[in-house]
Amino acid sequence: xxxxxxxSVNNVGWxxxxxxxxxxxxxxxxxxxxxxxxxxxxxxxxxAGPFENRILGHExxxxxxxxxxxxxxxxxxxxxxxxxxxxxxxxxxIQDVRANNAHDIAMxxxxxxxxxxxxxxxxxxxxxxxxxxxxxxxxxxxxxxALMTTDMMSTGFHAVENAKVQFGDxxxxxxxxxxxxxxVAGSALAGAGRIIAVGTRPNCVELxxxxxxxxxxxxxxxxxADQILALSGQVEKCIIAGGTTDTINQALRIxxxxxxxxxxxxxxxxxxxxxxxxxxxxxxxxxxxxxxxCPGGGRRIERLISLIRANRVHPGKMLNVRFDGFExxxxxxxxxxxxxxxxxxxxxxxxx
Length: 352
What we know:
The protein has 10 helices and 16 strands.
C-alpha cells in the first residue's frame, strides 16, 4: 500500500508499506476524510523523534475493511470516527483513570499514530482495541464536524476540562488556531463569563467571536499581558493553545492566586520552560500549571458528537480549505506546513 509521511527529518513524501493486519481486537480501515495537523508538521521537522519512513496523520474518519475475531461492535463497511488517542484498554495505567496515558510503553504511548506506528495518511491503517476506540459516524452528522472531534475539538475541550472553567470565570485563550478556537467554544459551553482570545489571523478572529470570544487581543498592539490586565485585571483561568515557552510567563502575570493555567501547546523537545519565581508567588500562589493531551476512546467521541447533534457547536467551520482525492493529502500537508494567513485548517475527502 501507499502512504504519505516522513521519509526522514525535513523530508516528506510517498512511502510504500505492507498493508496492516488486524489482531483479534483490532480493525483495519481505509480513510474517508483526513486532516493534517500542526503536530504532523512538527513531527516532520524532527519535533518528536528521528522517525524514518513513518506514515503521518492522526485525524481521520474511515471505513472498516477488516476486523479481528474478537471485535463485537463493528464490522466491515461501517463508517467510523477514529479518536487520535487509542489506548490499550487492558493496560495497567487504566487503573489510575488516566486513559490518555494508558499504555505499556512510554509517556504519550496512547498517542499511537506516528509516535508508535504508522498514521492515517495511508490507503489502509490500523486501529487497536476497535470496540473501545472507534465511534460510528451518525448519518445526520456532517463529515467535517465529525473529523474535527478526533483531535481539535477533543484537545480544545480538554484544555477547558483541565482549567476547571466555572460559571462566570474570565478565561484567556492564548492562540486561536483550531485547538484554541475549540477552547473558546468549550469555555463558552462551560459557562465562562468573559473570554479573551489572543490572536491576529482575521479568519480565526472572526470564528473566535462566533464561538464565544468577548474580546480579542493582538500581540501587534503591544505586550499581550499588559493589554489583558488593562482590559480585565487578573483572571481566573488561562488556556495556552499556542505561543512559545514565554507564554507561560505571560499567563502567570495575568492569573489570580488560586487560578489555573491549562496548557495544550505541543512544545519542542529542545525547548526549556522556565519562569521567575516571583511570577509564581515564590511558589506560594496556589496557581496550578497543568498540561496534557486529550483522552482517548470512542466514548469520548460520542460525547462530543452529542454536542454537535444538539447544535451546541460546529467545529467543521474551522475547515476552510477542502481537497478531494487520496493523492491530495500531500497538497493539504504542504499547505499546513506553509500556513498562509487565510488558512485555518485544510482537509481531504476521499471517494474510493
